[in-house]
Specification:
single chain, alpha/beta, Rossmann fold, 8-stranded mixed β-sheet, 8 strands, binds nicotinamide-adenine-dinucleotide
């Protein structure tokens, strides 16, 4: 990523905004003179957390499609524009079962459909602003599935695929969508695993390290790219291996029809 940073005076939405990454991100954005709206589940503690960070709070359950649009409408009414959306809300599964379908559906609803609905809601506002960025907090689990959490793996893998799918066409509109895929990081979401990490001496990221990668993605990500963030490694682009191309009857590489590719990929 080749970022210099977001322009001062920009307006950013952060979903899951009062959690570990959201708070670290808000702090970084505030020192860059960005107006930050932290959207999260409604509670006094979440409202206070936003207040303490000098950010506005928007009550939002990301699984509520209409509520995503309402939050964006309010941001445009209050601040006049929206330049970036960090679609960051997420939960992990905790079931000990090999497959707990109720839990899987719940995790996919938040971690994947929350991203889909968030993208749907912010796109018109980013277009009205003349372009902008969507940064999705996916996970390393979206690239290397977690054996203990199929719902999380499906949701994060789906989020990465969603970003890769939309990247080229949105780039044509001046909108960059990208995914950040952190390894384990020191926030509340790893509380159930923390003792295991400590006992094994396993390194975890700080929320600040992930927030730096999220900010860098706003200003400098490649459209549709996924960036891995790991302790001791930093943020690096993940290089996807291609798939074998179809062959024609005469053995030549078959060219995908134009209708399936945006102009930039023809
Ligand atoms: N911490 C890690 O190890 C790690 C690693 C990779 C990816 N992630 C991802 O990073 C993102 C942020 O997580 P975090 O580490 O800051 O954890 P966190 O638990 O501190 O924050 C998650 C936030 O999402 C909010 N949230 C949950 N469900 C919501 C809903 N339906 N609508 C709106 N908000 C909702 C929570 O209230 C919380 O504030 C998540 O998407 C998570 O999956 C975390």
């Amino acid at each position: 990523m080749t970022a210099t940073g977001p322009a001062p005076g920009s307006v950013a939405l952060v979903t899951g905004g009062t959690g570990g990454f959201g708070r670290a991100l808000a702090a970084l954005l505030r020192v860059r003179d960005v107006t930050v709206v932290l959207a999260d589940l409604d509670s006094d503690a979440n409202r206070r957390a936003a207040d303490d960070l000098g950010a506005s709070f928007a009550a939002l359950d990301v699984t509520d499609r209409a509520a995503n649009a309402a939050v964006v409408a309010r941001i445009e009414a209050d601040h006049g524009r929206l330049d970036a959306a960090f679609l960051n809300a997420g939960i992990a599964g905790t079931s000990p079962d090999v497959l707990d379908v109720d839990e899987l559906l719940e995790v996919v609803d938040v971690d994947l459909f929350g991203v889909v609905y968030g993208t749907e809601a912010v796109l018109p506002a980013l277009r009205r602003a003349g372009g902008g960025s969507i940064v999705v907090t996916a996970s390393l689990a979206g690239l290397s599935p977690m054996a203990t959490d199929p719902g999380y793996s499906v949701a994060k893998g789906g989020a990465v695929a969603f970003v890769r799918s939309l990247g080229p066409r949105l780039a044509g509109e001046g909108i960059t969508i990208s995914a950040i895929c952190p390894g384990f990081a020191d926030t509340a979401i790893i509380d159930p695993l923390r003792a295991e990490f400590d006992a094994a001496g396993f390194p975890v990221l700080t929320a600040g390290e992930v927030a730096e990668a999220l900010v860098a993605a706003w200003a400098g990500a490649e459209p549709g790219a996924a960036y891995v963030v790991q302790p001791g490694v930093g943020a690096v682009p993940y290089r996807f291996k291609g798939v074998p191309a179809a062959r024609t009857a005469s053995g030549e590489t078959a060219v995908v029809p134009d209708a399936l590719r945006p102009p930039s990929m023809r």
